[in-house]
Design brief:
The complex is a heterodimer of chains A (about 130) and B (about 375).
Chain A: H1 14-21, E1 26-30, E2 36-37, E3 52-56, E4 60-69, E5 81-88, E6 93-98, E7 111-118, E8 124-130
Antiparallel strand pairs in A: 1-2, 1-3, 4-5, 4-7, 5-6, 7-8
Chain B: E1 4-11, H1 21-36, E2 45-48, H2 55-63, E3 69-71, H3 79-92, E4 98-105, H4 107-110, H5 124-128, H6 138-152, H7 156-170, H8 186-190, E5 194-196, E6 199-200, E7 210-218, H9 219-225, E8 230-239, H10 254-265, E9 274-277, H11 282-291, H12 300-304, H13 322-325, H14 333-345, E10 358-365, E11 370-378
Parallel strand pairs in B: 2-3, 2-4, 9-10
Antiparallel strand pairs in B: 1-7, 1-8, 4-7, 5-6, 8-11, 10-11
Helix pairs in contact in B: 7-11, 10-11
């Protein structure tokens, strides 16, 4: 990952990033309508309520889509790498990476599971690996 | 149907200009005013972005104009179609009488383009997306293309048809960056440098300098100024996302934008004689054709590769050569309007479509973030 793009948590997201130190992937759940969302924010995007709580995600989902990046945006990034949208079984979609990939096997709708990647500062980034390859 | 009209259009110098942004802006604006038979002293409305934080104010200051109305809505390449809507509203409300919509960039001369885009550190994307290293905007369009191919059993060769068509048109446009080059083949596009799968360099728009301007006034005044004012028949827009994760990849906001524009104009896609779509990437055109209702889902590539989108066809598409082969100064939306007007006036030279009466210009900004559609028509 890119050192100069290391995340800088704010008052809303600090707890989410702290949980990554313990390899826990958090989502927000709305206490009014039970909608689950990610990234963390102060309102429910489904009903507009502001009574949100943290819930753990099991980190299972499918590849909504992906792209193999061959030209890096920064000189310290090694190509190729896979950027993907992961649709969690819990509902939300997040941008991530697929690690340990075999390009010949990669496809939309394949199942993936959560892995963690260390980044500077002690936080971790959620990344994903194909369940069968 | 609005009671406003486009009465002047122009490009600035294009390609590699070694000129400053404001010099290119002034060039486009004064040329468009001359085309309209007007001058800077007539201008009381300015809409522009991409200059500085205070873009419209900056351009007004440079031109010595103190406008009664201005707009710098930042919506990437679709902003210029949005400005047409807002300008028509301002003119109809009596807030302005002559509005200039403009854009210019020197991004190729200044080497100011970055593969990763600009990350603003206070945004959620900076925390939750940028650390993964996506190319901005390319990787998002690449993921849209991958999903599109998956859902409709399409291939990179289907995407390539858009680049091939753009090149064919550019070979008829002396102002096109690729004028005088060769036609493209599927192998050329697929064999170009891979950037972010499935998009190769040939699936991506050019990086050039350039700009344009459009002058809008009331239909009544427009008729006094020239015999062929171009009417603003209807407009619509949709804003959907800034991040790469929050909305489905397909269909895009072009669906709502187009529905709103067609409803306002009382028209349907089959009424359109010439189509100008933002082609930031080949996939953008396939997605927009289907979302706007020109093609059924999954059928855009066969439409693009058919005779219908070429000279003599039913709905010629991206007749300037587009962002892929004509000019892409970073926010290409204003040049879609310039080409649409030239086609409707019959001024397009070798690439002139046979007497079109209705044109569509559709802008797309950001990462399929903002969408704006304008329908234009000849008067009478």
């Amino acid at each position: 990952m890119i050192e100069n793009l290391a995340p800088v948590p704010d008052e809303v997201t600090q707890e989410w990033w702290d949980a990554t130190r313990e390899k826990r992937l958090l989502l927000q759940s709305c206490n009014s309508c039970q909608h689950a969302q990610h990234y963390p924010r102060t309102v429910c995007v489904s009903c507009g309520a502001s009574d949100l709580e943290w819930i753990p995600s099991a980190g299972n989902g499918v590849v909504d889509s992906y792209t193999v990046v061959h030209r890096a945006p920064h000189p310290d990034l090694e190509t190729p790498y896979v950027i993907a949208r992961i649709r969690l079984d819990d509902g939300p979609t997040l941008l991530s990476r697929i690690v340990d990939f075999d390009e010949a096997v990669l496809a939309c709708d394949l199942r993936v599971s959560l892995k963690w990647q260390d980044i500077p500062g002690g936080y971790r980034l959620p990344v994903f690996r194909l369940d069968h390859q | 149907m609005t009671s406003s009209a486009i009465v002047g259009v122009a490009e600035s110098d294009l390609g590699v200009t070694n000129k400053s942004i404001l010099a290119l802006q002034a060039q486009a604006i004064t040329r468009a005013l001359a085309d309209a038979g007007l001058s800077l002293t007539d201008v009381d409305g300015i809409a522009t972005s991409g200059v500085s934080r205070f873009s419209a104010t900056q351009v007004a200051d440079y031109l010595g104009v103190q406008p009664a109305w201005s707009d710098s809505t930042f919506a990437g390449g679709s902003a210029y179609e949005m400005y047409v809507a807002r300008a028509a509203q301002a003119i109809e409300a009596g807030q302005a009488s002559v509005v200039v919509v403009s854009f210019a960039s020197n991004q190729r001369s200044a080497k100011s383009r970055r593969l990763g885009g600009l990350v603003e550190s206070h945004t959620p994307e900076a925390q939750f997306e940028a650390p993964y290293g996506p190319l901005y905007p390319i990787s998002y369009y690449a993921m849209a293309a991958q999903r599109y191919m998956h859902e409709y059993n399409a291939s990179p060769a289907d995407l390539a048809q858009v680049a091939i068509l753009a090149r064919d048109w550019a070979l008829k446009n002396p102002k096109a960056y690729r004028y005088g080059s060769q036609p493209l083949t599927v192998d050329d596009v697929l064999g170009s440098t891979m950037v972010s799968t499935p998009l190769t360099a040939a699936d991506c728009c050019l990086v050039t300098d350039g700009g344009g301007a459009v002058v809008i006034t009331s239909l009544e005044r427009a008729r006094d100024l020239r015999p062929d004012p171009i009417r603003i028949l209807g407009y619509g827009e949709a804003t959907t996302n800034t991040s790469m994760s929050q909305v489905p990849l397909l269909p895009t906001g072009a669906r709502e934008s187009g529905q709103r524009a067609f409803a306002a104009a009382g028209l349907v896609p089959a009424d359109v004689d010439v189509i100008q779509l933002y082609d930031s990437f080949t996939i953008t055109v396939l997605l927009s054709l289907e979302a706007l209702g020109f093609c059924a889902p999954g059928e855009a590539s066969s439409f693009v590769s058919s005779a219908e989108t070429r000279l003599g066809g039913r709905q010629p598409l991206n007749t300037s050569g587009g962002g892929l082969s004509y000019c892409h100064p970073g926010q290409y939306g204003v040049l879609l309007l310039v080409e649409a007007v030239r086609q409707l006036r019959g001024e397009a030279g070798e690439r002139q479509v046979d007497q079109p009466s209705i044109a569509l210009a559709h802008g797309t900004g950001g990462i399929l973030s903002t969408h704006a559609t304008v329908l234009l028509g000849v008067d009478g």
